Automatic annotation (TrEMBL):
GO terms for molecular function: protein-cysteine S-palmitoyltransferase activity. It is a multi-pass membrane protein. The lineage of its organism: Eukaryota, Viridiplantae, Streptophyta, Embryophyta, Tracheophyta. This is S-acyltransferase. Belongs to the DHHC palmitoyltransferase family.
Amino acid sequence: MYSGSALAATSAAEPRVYQAWRGSNIFFLQGRFIFGPDVRSLFLTIFLIVAPVAVFCVYVARKLMDHFAHHLGISIMLVAVAFTLYDLALLLLTSGRDPGIIPRNAHPPEPEVYDGNTEVGGVQTPQLRLPRTKDVTVNGMTVKIKYCDTCMLYRPPRCSHCSICNNCVQRFDHHCPWVGQCIGLRNYRFFYMFVFSTTLLCVYVFSFCWIYIKKIMDAEQTTVWRAMAKTPASIILLIYTFISVWFVGGLSVFHLYLMSTNQTTYENFRYRYDRRSNPYNIGLVNNFKEVFFTSIPPSKNKFRARAHGDKGFNARAVSGGGFMSPNMGNGVGDMEVGRKAVAWDGEIEGNGSDLEVGVNNEMIEDKDGVGVGVGFPSPSPDLNQVRVTTESNPRQGSWGRRGGNWDMPPETLGLSARVGGSELGNEGVR
């Protein structure tokens, strides 16, 4: 029995989930905000929004106060400032929240398929292989879901593993470098609202710059070119907003099309549903309702909770032998791009809770199975049995990238000494 003070001390010594996180994310304010590893690009995005609005307020909106009634002149500047703050709030909601990360399993799911016998110590032992894909039914259509070696789970429909953040993300759309975050189930709505509001802000600034030039023309009875020469700030803003609106405006129209057909960016480029039936298309009105008028599901991760680590890698027992990753022994064409094959022992002891399958230098993920759609249950029972595990040095549990190479942590090397019921031989991590 432990005293209350001893239990409290033990709990306080355990790291929080965000401190033991195995993905590539960056956390702020003790796990309250989660960003991608390229979060620095977010500051560039903020500058590209705030700087032109500041120039507009100082050199255009302030001058327009003299050409309109007092309350109308002030409202031009106030609307610009309010619109900018609204845009930045949407940017933070997009980049600073969990996009729909599925927690990693502590162990692989139950293997189902026999893959012949393997000789260990002169004894033939049956090997079980996890099937690489499984079939699930979505709206009466069969959809293949794929096993993720890194997260040790079968990705639900529309789920994909982001090679930048190193997480499986529900309803994965794409990883946006401008916001420094994956776009998925829990932030896609805010992403579109951010892009669309930025388009409107560009149109607003562009329009009032022309209005200011027209006011100069009427006041001085001069040509448009001479009027533009008197306000170089307006010329700069006109060029800047004209170029910007083609990017954010085009992106707004493209995602409007994707929402109307219930596609993600990843699915549109990979599967081309215009050439075959889309199992997720539930009609124009319902597609928009799914994006804008359904409640956002809560995060599956409690980043500020204590990470209660397991003492060992408790793989499920397989009588008579071990079991294998879906990619174990496959040819290069059958393997997930960049994945290394792993043979799992039926019972492995020691500090192996952080054992994962790494990725190669290219850091490319073959995403045949893509994100969790709203309302679809998880096809993998292990998603309901997720446990966050930690080590004394939790950062060493993942495959870390050092000098452009993926290094195998010492804990993983120690695990490769055992497999099956007794000795691993040469079957460990290949």
